[in-house]
Write a structure and sequence with these properties.
The longest helix is centred in the N-terminal third of the chain and has 20 residues. About 5% of the residues have low confidence. With about 200 residues, the protein is an alpha+beta fold. A 6-stranded mixed sheet has the order 6-3-7-8-9-10.
Length: about 200
């Protein structure tokens, strides 16, 4: 009798523990989702100033109505060699990430870069480690500065949290080039991925 009672109590306790699931807060859930799509977002929108500026086209000589190609082909050749070198470079691409996630146009949530420290393609560093972005020289292709920056917003989910929208921007630095995006992500079979990227502005 005592054994039966012990077994019954044990089963009740085990079932009660089994029913308890680890609850995830709204903020933790959003961070998990953002972390799962962050690299995919960066890989889709980042700007690399090393590849932004090809040599200017030859000027037209209005007197002869012909293009002044002196030196242009040599510049173009050097540019193509440089681009091949960048393409074949196996070093990680240094990207500056704004320290805070934008929430309703206010930067108030620190974005944790720790989960991405060992990413094979990108070396993510906070922009606060470098001089203010608008002072960056976009023609500087060889220093230890980031090749561009990324800023990202919090996620706006639909009612059942199967879809989300993220506002992001990418820049090559110097305040001279940038693009804005509205990015749609979707949960498919338990994994979040980008389903649409809409460019909203360019400068």
């Amino acid at each position: 009798m005592r054994l039966s009672k012990f077994i019954f109590i044990s089963l009740v306790l085990l079932s009660s523990f089994g029913c308890k699931k680890k609850e995830v807060s709204e903020s933790d859930f959003e961070k998990e989702v953002l972390n799962s799509v962050f690299v995919e977002i960066v890989d889709s929108i980042y700007m690399d100033r090393r590849t932004m500026e090809p040599p200017q086209m030859p000027r037209l000589d209005f007197k002869t109505n012909e293009e002044d190609t002196i030196g242009y082909h040599e510049k173009l050749k050097r540019y193509q060699i440089e681009q091949d070198s960048i393409k074949n470079d196996k070093n990680r691409i240094l990207i500056g990430v704004y320290d805070f996630v934008v929430n309703n146009k206010i930067r108030n949530d620190k974005f944790d870069l720790t989960p991405f420290q060992n990413n094979k393609k990108f070396d993510f560093q906070y922009t606060s480690k470098f001089p203010e972005e608008r002072f960056w020289n976009i023609e500087d292709k060889k220093s230890g500065m980031p090749v561009g920056t990324i800023e990202i917003s919090n996620i706006k989910f639909n009612k059942n949290k199967s879809l989300g929208t993220i506002i992001a921007s990418a820049s090559c630095g110097g305040g001279k080039c940038g693009r804005g995006f509205e990015i749609t992500i979707e949960n498919k079979s338990g994994k979040w991925h980008i389903t649409n990227i809409n460019q909203t502005w360019v400068s």
